[in-house]
């Protein structure tokens, strides 16, 4: 079998990578850390194109594998744009992040990787992050005329409109969302522990409903009825073992074994003799 050799290790280590990239990025870097076995770099938003170009050209992170968005509504700059880079020569990955708000555009990186065009369109469609310089920044996952950005935390789970095919108009029509029942939120709490809020329907019981009795608990063995005296009494009340059965004795009224009946043996012998005579007669003919 031919062994395939490659300059890249099977599993690349992140040892020393963070310090090397920190020194290389300089004032373009905001923070650097190792998290979940990966190097995570946060860079200045307006310098993201320069930072990614340096990582591509001087540190061999040739491929932009993916882009993602994250929404933190409590932050001033609520969005994070994450770039995931791969070095095929070193078999190593890094994540680069920038923060942005609804009014602060992020420089496009389509000048570095053509595939960033569609990735930036996805982040724009789902979160509303604007990428300055993208030549074709349109929605890519939602429908034409869609309003809002579905991955924002303040976007309702039910959405605003629903679509269906109308047999009367012979086309797809948009209508306001109408739910057959209220949207239920599941908190996945244990039903045995009980929820820390009033369940639907419990409010009808009112304040006059008596509280459930306090469950009885046994703090010491004497309250359980157990102890040496109880164990001794239980041992004495055990029933006596069944008497041994004599194999030779026959129970009264039990039928005799059919194999020992002489009449059955005689009939079986007569049948064998008749069969033998018939076979001999056929052979003589």
Automatic annotation (TrEMBL):
Membrane topology of this protein: Peripheral membrane protein
Instruction: State the SUPFAM superfamilies in the record.
Output: Nqo5-like (SSF143243)
Q: Where in the cell is it found?
A: Cell membrane
Q: Which UniProt keywords apply?
A: Cell membrane, Membrane, NAD, Oxidoreductase, Quinone, Translocase, Transport, Ubiquinone
Listed GO MF terms: oxidoreductase activity
Query: Could you tell me where the Basic and acidic residues compositional bias lies?
Result: 270-285
Q: Which residues form the NADH:ubiquinone oxidoreductase 30kDa subunit domain?
A: 42-160
Which EC class is this protein assigned?
A: translocase
- Its main subcellular localisation, reduced to a broad class, is membrane
Q: Quickly give the catalysed reaction.
A: a quinone + NADH + 5 H(+)(in) = a quinol + NAD(+) + 4 H(+)(out)
Pfam family for this entry, one: Complex1_30kDa
What residue spans carry the region label Disordered? 199-285
Q: What is its EC number?
A: 7.1.1.-
Q: What this chain does, per the record?
A: NDH-1 shuttles electrons from NADH, via FMN and iron-sulfur (Fe-S) centers, to quinones in the respiratory chain. The immediate electron acceptor for the enzyme in this species is believed to be ubiquinone. Couples the redox reaction to proton translocation (for every two electrons transferred, four hydrogen ions are translocated across the cytoplasmic membrane), and thus conserves the redox energy in a proton gradient.
Q: Which family does it belong to?
A: Belongs to the complex I 30 kDa subunit family.
Summarize the subunit comment: NDH-1 is composed of 14 different subunits. Subunits NuoB, C, D, E, F, and G constitute the peripheral sector of the complex.
Q: What is this protein called?
A: NADH-quinone oxidoreductase subunit C
The gene coding this protein? nuoC
